[in-house]
Amino acid sequence: MRCKTLFLGLSCLLFAYYIYAPIPENIEEPWKVRIINAVMKISSLMATLFENMGIMKFEDIFFGLMNLQNTKPVSDENITVIDTDFGGIPVRLFLPKKKSDRLRPAVINIHGGAFCLGSYKMLCYDSLNRLTANRLDAVVIAPDYRLAPQYLFPAALEDCIFVVKFFLQETVLEKYGVDPSRICISGDSSGGTLVATVTQLLQDDPEYKNKLKAQALLYPGLQAIDTMTPSYQEYEHGPFLSRKMAIKLSCLYIAEDEELTKAILRNEHMPEGSRHLFKRVNWSDFLPEKYRMIHVYKEPIFGKLNTSYPELTYSKVSPLIASDSQLQRLPLTYILTCEHDILRDDGLIYVTRLRNAGVPVTHDHVEDGIHGAVSFATAPVYLNLGSRIKDKYISWLEESL
Ligand SMILES: *[C@@H]1O[C@H](CO)[C@@H](O)[C@H](O)[C@H]1NC(C)=O
Ligand SMILES: *[C@@H]1O[C@H](CO)[C@@H](O)[C@H](O)[C@H]1NC(C)=O
Ligand SMILES: *[C@@H]1O[C@H](CO)[C@@H](O)[C@H](O)[C@H]1NC(C)=O
Description:
10 strands; Rossmann fold; hydrolase; binds 2-acetamido-2-deoxy-beta-D-glucopyranose; single chain; 42% helix; alpha/beta; Lipase_GDXG_put_SER_AS; two-stranded antiparallel sheet; 401 residues
């Protein structure tokens, strides 16, 4: 009892402290963002504490928090919502009820969560996908994929590829009344990483080339090569997503190895002989002037890790390091970046590299945006920013699909 009181007291103190942590000036609804930020910081602190005490793993607390948002498949007046599976992989389908005499477009939406958290069941994704189905009169497919650290790379990627290929079968498209020439794949954050990778792999596969009309990436993470880009430095402490938390969680996709996490945090994780890869993520070449200005480019330090993780050099982990000739093959692309986001520069560099390669790109940059805003588009924390981002993304789909 006394322990609980102490615990509660401590949390209140921390909350009072973190609620006054500085946030960028142009942020809309600053108090809501302060609350979200404080809750994240406290959860992160608790997670570290519990992990050190051996009570639970760092990611478990976040897993619990996100699971609270899970929903059942509930149909509404316009959309039939079904949980089913594609060859054993769980998917939620959003099927418009209205009779249509023409084939419909389709969107495959892959959720985010640093490769170890999240589900299509979460209210934020359920409502995003429902809205997409409604506004586009589209069939929406939302897969769940195997999560780290129980399932390491490439499990998540393999599941996503499997679902996409399953859906692209003629018989399946026919069954759902989908127009094969109007299919888009989309995802946010680590879902964006998976989308970028799946799209690259499918374009390289003669059997699937050009089967996806477009890809949409919302504040995607696109590389694990350089974790000291200007945005990683500027937003190291958030709002919402801190550098440490992002790295601690997403690192689990490669291995449960504290040395690896520490090396990535120091940005000294890349193996000897990988210098050529840095050319493709070199922010001092690819970022617009205004983002480079106050920063000095530091050459990476190689070969500090004793265990070898070849995955770190794969474009299947960091789609941003794909070669120019691979990028040239990519379809119509939408990228949304947020100013106040450690992953901002990943998105900005991809925009530059894709445009240099001749890929048609629509880029929306949200000047007052924070990472994960779409996840705050529903109760209990509704951010107007989340709705604005959803609206930009869906408007692009309406025009492009
Ligand atoms: C159903 O569609 C109509 C017309 O687009 C819309 O006004 C209504 O809000 C939709 N219902 C739901 C539950 O989304
Ligand atoms: C990155 O770009 C800068 C400026 O163009 C250059 O000086 C540096 O050598 C590059 N580093 C790598 C690893 O490519
Ligand atoms: C890695 O290897 C070096 C040299 O062999 C050694 O000094 C260092 O302690 C090792 N680090 C770890 C974390 O094992």
